[in-house]
Amino acid sequence: xxxxxxxxxxxxxxxxxxxxxxxxxxxxxxxxxxxxxxxxxxxxxxxxxxxxxxxxxxxxxxxxxxxxxxxxxxxxxxxxxxxxxxxxxxxxxxxxxxxxxxxxxxxxxxxxxxxxxxxxxxxxxxxxxxxxxxxxxxxxxxxxxxxxxxxxxxxxxxxxxxxxxxxxxxxxxxxxxxxxxxxxxxxxxxxxxxxxxxxxxxxxxxxxxxxxxxxxxxxxxxxxxxxxxxxxxxxxxxxxxxxxxxxxxxxxxxxxxxxxxxxxxxxxxxxxxxxxxxxxxxxxxxxxxxxxxxxxxxxxxxxxxxxxxxxxxxxxxxxxxxxxxxxxxxxxxxxxxxxxxxxxxxxxxxxxxxxxxxxxxxxxxxxxxxxxxxxxxxxxxxxxxxxxxxxxxxxxxxxxxxxxxxxxxxxxxxxxxxxxxxxxxxxxxxxxxxxxxxxxxxxxxxxxxxxxxxxxxxxxxxxxxxxxxxxxxxxxxxxxxxxxxxxxxxxxxxxxxxxxxxxxxxxxxxxxxxxxxxxxxxxxxxxxxxxxxxxxxxxxxxxxxxxxxxxxxxxxxxxxxxxxxxxxxxxxxxxxxxxxxxx
Length: 583
Description:
Blueprint: H1 2-6, E1 11-12, E2 24-25, E3 27-31, H2 38-44, E4 51-52, H3 55-71, E5 78-87, E6 91-100, E7 106-113, H4 117-126, H5 137-152, E8 160-169, E9 174-182, E10 191-195, H6 202-206, H7 219-223, H8 225-230, E11 235-238, E12 242-245, E13 251-259, E14 263-272, E15 282-294, E16 299-307, E17 313-321, E18 329-340, E19 344-356, E20 361-374, E21 386-399, E22 410-426, E23 436-453, E24 456-469, E25 478-480, E26 494-496, E27 498-511, E28 514-527, E29 538-553, E30 556-565, E31 574-580
Parallel strand pairs: 1-5, 3-6, 7-9, 10-13
Antiparallel strand pairs: 2-4, 5-6, 8-9, 11-13, 12-13, 14-15, 15-16, 16-17, 17-18, 18-19, 19-20, 20-21, 21-22, 22-23, 23-24, 24-27, 25-26, 27-28, 28-29, 29-30, 30-31
């Protein structure tokens, strides 16, 4: 009745009425309407051009226009639909839709049905901004959605608010709403069950959850469970948590997971024969061994060994002890040894205590010892002093990424400051240097991720390191270049007391943790004049770019890229291999 009284539809055609059903529409134009354009009108009518102007499409078009206008508060609009044909090399038929809106209706009143006293009091105190304001269905639904969020975060997981009826007063041009409200039972989490964890112990999952047994139900905490468990890197899939009330009125939360293979072994060993009859051969290769969920307890350990050439090698051991005595404190221990060709051997012992403040924020206290031993050469050329360095510092970390290995959104921020005491334990040179020296180190990392389109992610990372203090040797300098910093250049090609680099990647997701990407890297290094190294001050900006592919393996995300330094030709491109496992 309302449609017949207030909406007039006028059709102008170039053919007689009986030919309308055969008319083919090639173009659609919408005029005098601010709520939807041509593409939106086609979308709400489920139509595509070209289309046949049939009686069914006419009804669908009219219903869609009426619905959209009424949802925005215009109940007495005038529609004019006209079909025009133009003739050139072919006939092009255009459907012109002109919509003239009337005065927008106001919301006069909201009637709540079945609402208990607490619900009615809360909603009534919040809905006053809607009353006597222009009516739009979306504005009302957004308000009810906000109210539902409030109640679901206050112990009412089964609360519901539904618009039952929209009552329009054509004389006063006002709207009244009839709304059904159901609060449901106020619920607690009386029991938390885990499902799918065959190796991981239940308490490892339960201690990570933002909810505990006895808590009032809060939907926002339930929604964080998947993200929190993904950050443990123990599970391939974390299902959406399920909540139900048993026959005994106990609230039960079920957390389902699918475990991933957390043990890994990967390596390659080669033998490089010697040259000539007197030179012996040597082993070369790379070995990575990782156990990220020892005995299902969440403990982790890893071993990394790499023999680069006859005189250079690396050995790294790491261990993680999580949740000491059931409290949110982690202990991290590591040992690192590097033999740098015929220059020196460096050994580092480090330990830290990490306090997990929230699911996204942690604070760490760090302590370390480092020894540098110069290699004895036949030429007695000075390389580095024999020294011992003790360091102490702190680190703050913020991690809101939805996935630590292949994030689509969120950020990662880390800032570390350490204070080092360096002691020269042996000076076999004629150089006059202080026995005790002080140094400070600052490290900065910021990574941000934005899913701009479906399965397309922009990743932007900014990194910086700075070393300040006395008696800076080559073993102290930071290294820049290669797969993990500045692609397009050799590994550790540049040395500096201050280095910074920016990685920009545009990723096309192929699977959950596999993606192809294009990248641009920019880097900077500064090495101040150093009398020990006999070097003048030097600094430069560098740029690299290229394409790459990242795919998931038991070791982590294996990253392969083909990169160029600025000015390189195709034959000068470099292939980089990287591994992201975030121990």
